[in-house]
Amino acid sequence: MSERVLMKGNEALAEAAISAGCKCFFGYPITPQTEISAYLSKRLPKVGGVFLQAESEIAAINMVYGCAGTGTRCMTSSSSPGISLKSEGLSYIAGADLPCVVINVQRGGPGLGGIQPSQADYWQATRALGHGDFHVIVLAPSTVQEMADLVTRAFDLADEYRMPVMLLADGLLGQMMEPVVFKKREENGKSFDKSWAANGHGGKRKHNIINSLYLEATELEEKIHERFKRYDEIKAKHTMAESYMTDDADVIIAAYGSTARLARTAAEKARSLGIKAGVFRPITLYPFPVNELREATKTAKRVLVCEMSMGQMVDDVRLALECKIPVDFFGRTGGIIPKPEEILEKLKGV
Amino acid sequence: MSKVTIVTGHYGSGKTNLAVNLALWQSPCRIADLDIVNPFFRTADFAELFLRNNIQLNVSSYANTNLDIPALNFGLSAEPTDKLPLIIDVGGDDEGAKALGRYKNVLNNREVEFIYVVNFRRFLTQTPSEAERLMREIEAASGTSATAIVNNTNLGEQTTADIIESSVVQAKELSRITNLPLLFTTAKAGLFPSDRHGIKPIDVFVKTFI
């Protein structure tokens, strides 16, 4: 399939997961990501995979834990309240060094919140996805095409670093339709070492144990240090960002996901009014593209962070810039999508 | 008695946008939003447009709220519906078509046009045979047979005249294998100079985001 077809973000993501070799999906329905489940329930069994609707989000993430332990590519998907339920399981998966892909198509919170698009889970995704000293890689698509492309990347990164990778989308990206092209994957992609997998030793090797419990504190500390060395490598090698009209910009709008699309429109309008505006879009939220942001703001006098939240990524922008450039914030929350005109008004004021 | 037009098809085939156009052409009329599947991008988004154009809207009072339950808390049959043409915008695929069953009594003794909308640039309906399979699923779920096809092939903002022209061939083939008339092919107003291939210009109302 190399022709452009019209797909919903959720469907494109699901189809790309299958092409990336995802063999098992465990999930529980929740708006606005249910199309992922619906799509995979029809398609996965046809390609020899397993689709299982679990009795809850908690059950689903623990099924992922078990499946990931066998070295099988697997995925779960939910939206904000459901991701909170998965946090214990995610911590265990991180503590057992297992690869898996987790999708969060964000909606308004806290609590049951609402079903409209939101970006209020940034802190949760990048800081506090579960208890303990750990991180997951967080990728933020901005188009339906990226919903497809980044899920492939997510599976590769998960396998390379033996850790969970989250795709942090939002209800707008999940529901909107855009043309998408599925790139032909080189054979079956890269191959990864799975000698740790508990997939049956057949009496030919020592058995593998999947576990996150360390009774000796020194052993646990050593394990965590080893994990953080991997995070350092990811920081050095795998940050991703996109800069748009930043070369001569006086003011940079920093935004991720669907908000970055609105920011582009606002920046273009600003340019037509003689305001030198540009857009910086992080694609990896963890690790945050610190160097890319510094490069993009070389000529900038101010930065305006735009989010569908009360301001969460704004912290990472301030940390990255070490307060050398003033950073302002504009956001809408609770499921309200900001208008480019609103962003422009704020831009004029900063 | 006035006509009932039922609009069904694959998710994203453009059912809602077509239903809005049909309503504007037939005004004064009544339009019912029967989408129990998708809480976003639905007929209820156009309440103001309908008000301005003498179109009555029947919609669940939970549509476009944060309560995403598949409720249809309005009775078409209790209303004096037979005075006005009625357009029913049905949810996507066979799942959405199930909701039609509840209103079967409305359809009795009325002239019904059951339109199957197809977009050959949509995943899972890229060929006439794929499109036919999905149509049969919708017919089975709704307990009603399609009576006509509308070709609404598009690639969103990236639709070109070539894409539409090449889809006409597929639409004719779908018409042949299903033995159903192809009512017309749609194109965003301005894309074609005249009514070539029986192409009907339509307005695009469904929200786009840049």
Structure commentary:
The complex is a heterodimer of chains A (350) and B (210). In chain A, 40% of the residues lie in helices and 19% in strands. Chain A is α/β, with parallel strands linked by helices. In chain A, the strands form three sheets. Chain A has a seven-stranded mixed beta sheet with strand order 3-2-4-5-7-6-12, sandwiched between helices. A five-stranded mixed beta sheet of chain A has the order 9-11-10-13-14, sandwiched between helices. A two-stranded antiparallel ribbon of chain A has the order 1-8. The termini of chain A are far apart. The mean pLDDT of chain A is 95. Chain B is α/β, with parallel strands linked by helices. Chain B has one domain: P-loop containing nucleotide triphosphate hydrolases (Rossmann fold). Chain B contains six helices and eight strands. Chain B has helices at residues 15-26, 47-52, 93-97, 104-107, 128-142, 161-178; strands at residues 4-9, 29-34, 55-58, 86-90, 112-118, 148-151, 182-188, 199-202. Chain B has an eight-stranded parallel beta sheet with strand order 3-2-4-1-5-6-7-8, with helices on both faces. In chain B, helix 2 (47-52) links the parallel strand 2 (29-34) and strand 3 (55-58). In chain B, helix 5 (128-142) packs across helix 6 (161-178). The A-B interface holds A 3-8, 11, 15, 31-32, 35, 38, 108, 113-116, 171-172, 175-179, 258, 261-262, 264-265, 335, 337, 340 and B 11-12, 38-41, 66, 68, 95, 119, 121-123, 126, 154-156, 158, 209-210.
